[in-house]
Amino acid sequence: MKKLLIAAISLFTIGLNAQQLEKSLLWKISGNGIKEPSYIFGTIHVTCDATLDEHVIKALNDTKQLYLELDMDDPAMKAGMMGGMMMKDGVTLDSLATTEDLAVLDTFITKELGIPLKMMNRFKPSMISMSLMPKYMDCPMQSFEDELMKVTHEQKEEVYGLETLEEQLAVFDDISYEEQMNELIKTAKDGIEKDKAEFDKMQEVYRTKDLNAIMKFMADSENKMYGDNADVLLNNRNKNWIPKIEETAKQTPTFFGVGAAHLGGKEGVIMLLRKKGYKVEAVK
C-alpha cells in the first residue's frame, strides 16, 4: 500500500508549466557549499521493471545514505497508515454520492477488490483508487524504491524520508472528498480498461526519461483531480523539501529518490535548487 500511495501522489501530480530539461532521470547536485556531489533520481513507484542502470548504481556507490519521500523501512509506518486513510469529521462515502452512483461503485469495487463498499465507507476515495493500481498491471508489481533500498542495505547505509507519512497522507484532506469521489465514480462507470490503458502509456513515457514529455502526458490526462491540485500535491511539497535537501547534501553525499513528477517544471526540485544557486546537471 505504501508503494501505491506514493505512486498516486507522485506520478499523477504534474505541474502544467514545463521547463525544457535534458532527457535524464538522474541528476547530480553540486556547488554552493556542497563539498561532495549528491544525486537525485526520478522514480516511478509502481512498474513492471525497476532495474537500476549502471549510472544509478554508481551514484549509489558514490553517496553515503538514501533519502526517499518516506522512510519506507520504518516499522512504525504500518501502524500510522490506517488512520491516515480515513476521512475526517465523520464523513463517509455514502454521504458523497447519489444512491444510483453508490450502487455502481459498490458493484465495481466488489468485483475488482473483493470487498463490499460498505466495508470501506470511511476511506478517502483516493485511497480506494490507489488500491486499484495492481489491476492496471499485467506483470508482478516492482518498485524502484525497493531496489534503491536493497542496494542501500547491502552497503549497510541508512534510509531516511523527506517527509513523514502523516504529512503525505494529509494532502488528501486538503482536496475535497467530493472531488475525489467523483473521480472514483468515473473510474467505476468507465471500467478498469480505460485507466489501465492510460497507466500503460505512462509507463512508456517514463521509459523515455523525458521529464518534459512526462509533464505533457499528465497535463493531457483525463483525470484532472491531480493537475487541478498541483500546489497541494506537488509544488508545496517540493518547496518544503528544498531546505532538507540543502542541509542534508551539505553534510553528507546523499542519493535522493523521489517521484519523477517532482523533478520537472518551474516549481520542480531541479529548478528550485538551481534558483538557490546549486548546479544541477543531467547524468546521461
TrEMBL record:
InterPro entries the UniProt entry points to: TraB/PrgY/GumN_fam (IPR002816), YbaP-like (IPR047111)
What is this protein identified as? TraB/GumN family protein
Organism, scientific name: Flavobacterium alkalisoli
